[in-house]
């Protein structure tokens, strides 16, 4: 099948590469010429495991352009993967989706073939029916279900394993506005080994929000348990292991620490919370998830102050800036709030991250960025570990020998007790 994809970020590019691996012809559309040129050269623009190798293997099955009209006209199905950032009130900004909808409508105006528009961008329930479909209808002069079809196909990708998640999904959700479009979209996934859930569009939109909200709640809950465990002298990771065997709970997302980050969890919880309030419902649990997660980030600062009174002028090394390992993404990374607080306290900050330093430097150009872990901790009074990069697992006491004071606090469980003595976790 010939597929066009609007947006070449994490979701768009991994979706495009994934479908190309399934022998479809894919053209990505992006306004950023550098991204387009990179994709056409077979070079990945994001840090994702296996993505570069996959792009080399698919060759010209995946191309890119800045010309949305040609891409849409030359394809039979268009996936929309543009961003839906948060606004100040927590609701999502749909302007990019609205612009894409208008351009798609204009592009299919003269097409005789039935064209399917698939929304992968995360939107609140009802947005597609109430906002996007009318825009496509107006700009195309066609009616949904007749001249074109619309489906919702939410993504459930985790950064760092996004391509693998796309190829081997837990489930495929198809929210359809008409059965014909749903049937065609389901046929596109015929080679995927996963259950397919077909619903109306509003339900599919809610499945995405509900999924991320449950996962965010699970992370928040284990952090609360971890905070209690620390006061009791209990290792929360032993507790997590014990409860993880319960099939009703499962062992994923039970890594206690400084809370969740990334582009999805906070944004989606905020959006659902805002949507609920607009309907007159006070979603108190959702508010608590957001508040507790923000507070969890500051617990490592509180612990640092207990160990190193008077932070002004102290040198603090920070290891890990990405919101999680195996990505260069710093969106809503706990490191942003933590480094901001260190600067506010008057600390001298040196930082190291194997992938995310360049992105972080755009936000914090005034701190020192080290080439490696040893350079970051040299002459430091304390060290905070904020991302669980695999290379940190091999750190030994010798690696910390150049510190002025050996105060080491983990925000993620990464250090090996047999290699490093006298360190502490934020909630273990």
What does it look like?
Helix content is 42%, strand content 14%. By secondary structure, the chain is of the alpha/beta class. The chain has two domains: 193 residues, NAD(P)-binding Rossmann-like Domain (Rossmann fold); 197 residues, 3-Layer(aba) Sandwich (Rossmann fold), CATH 3.40.50.720. The chain has an eight-stranded mixed β-sheet with strand order 3-2-1-4-5-6-7-8, sandwiched between helices. A six-stranded parallel β-sheet has the order 11-10-9-12-13-14. Helix 1 links the parallel strand 1 and strand 2. Helix 1 packs across helix 3 and helix 5 runs parallel beside helix 6. The longest helix has 32 residues. It is globular, with a radius of gyration of 23 Å. It starts with a strand and ends with a strand.
Question: Which tags fit this structure?
Answer:
single chain; 428 residues; alpha/beta; Rossmann fold; 6-stranded parallel beta sheet
Topology:
Layout: E1 2-6, H1 10-21, E2 25-29, H2 33-40, H3 51-58, E3 62-65, H4 68-73, E4 77-80, H5 95-108, E5 115-119, H6 127-140, E6 148-152, H7 162-167, E7 172-176, H8 179-188, E8 196-200, H9 201-232, H10 236-244, H11 265-278, H12 284-307, E9 315-319, H13 334-344, E10 348-352, H14 357-363, E11 368-369, H15 373-377, E12 382-385, E13 408-410, E14 424-425
Parallel strand pairs: 1-2, 1-4, 2-3, 4-5, 5-6, 7-8, 9-10, 9-12, 10-11, 12-13, 13-14
Antiparallel strand pairs: 6-7
């Amino acid at each position: 099948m010939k597929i066009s994809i609007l947006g070449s970020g994490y979701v768009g590019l991994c979706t495009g590469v994934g479908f190309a691996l399934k022998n479809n012809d894919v053209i990505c559309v992006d306004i950023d010429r550098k991204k387009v040129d990179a994709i056409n050269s077979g070079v990945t623009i994001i840090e994702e495991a296996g993505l570069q190798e996959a792009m080399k293997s698919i060759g010209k099955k995946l191309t890119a352009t800045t010309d949305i009209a040609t891409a849409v006209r030359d394809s039979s199905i268009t996936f929309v993967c543009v961003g839906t950032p948060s606004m100040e009130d927590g609701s999502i900004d749909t302007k990019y989706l609205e612009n894409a909808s208008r351009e798609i409508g204009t592009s299919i105006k003269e097409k005789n073939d039935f064209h399917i528009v698939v929304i992968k961008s995360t939107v609140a329930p009802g947005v597609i029916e109430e906002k996007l479909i009318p825009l496509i209808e107006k700009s195309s002069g066609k009616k949904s279900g007749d001249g074109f079809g619309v489906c919702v196909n939410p993504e459930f990708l985790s950064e760092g394993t996004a391509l693998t998640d796309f190829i081997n999904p837990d489930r495929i959700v198809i929210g359809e506005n008409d059965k014909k479009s749903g049937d065609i979209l389901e046929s596109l996934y015929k080679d995927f080994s996963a259950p397919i859930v077909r619903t109306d569009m509003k339900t599919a939109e809610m499945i995405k929000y509900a999924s991320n909200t449950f996962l965010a709640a699970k992370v928040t809950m284990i952090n609360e348990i971890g905070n209690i465990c620390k006061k009791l002298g209990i290792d929360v990771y032993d507790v997590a292991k014990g409860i993880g065997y319960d099939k009703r709970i499962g062992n994923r997302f039970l890594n206690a620490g400084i809370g969740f980050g990334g582009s999805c969890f906070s944004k989606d919880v905020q959006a659902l919370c805002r949507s609920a309030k607009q309907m007159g419902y006070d979603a108190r649990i959702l508010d608590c998830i957001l508040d507790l997660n923000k507070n969890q980030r500051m617990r490592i600062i509180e612990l640092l102050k207990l160990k190193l009174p008077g932070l002004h002028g102290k040198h603090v090394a920070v290891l890990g800036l990405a919101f999680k390992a195996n990505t260069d993404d710093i969106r809503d990374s706990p490191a942003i709030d933590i480094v901001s607080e260190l600067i506010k306290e008057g600390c001298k900050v040196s930082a190291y991250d194997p992938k995310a330093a360049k992105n972080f430097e755009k936000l914090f150009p005034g701190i020192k960025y080290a080439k490696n872990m040893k350079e970051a901790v040299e002459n430091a009074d304390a060290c905070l570990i904020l991302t669980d990069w695999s290379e940190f697992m091999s750190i030994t006491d010798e690696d910390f020998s150049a510190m002025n004071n050996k105060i080491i606090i983990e925000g993620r469980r990464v250090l090996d007790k047999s290699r490093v003595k006298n360190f502490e976790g934020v909630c273990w």
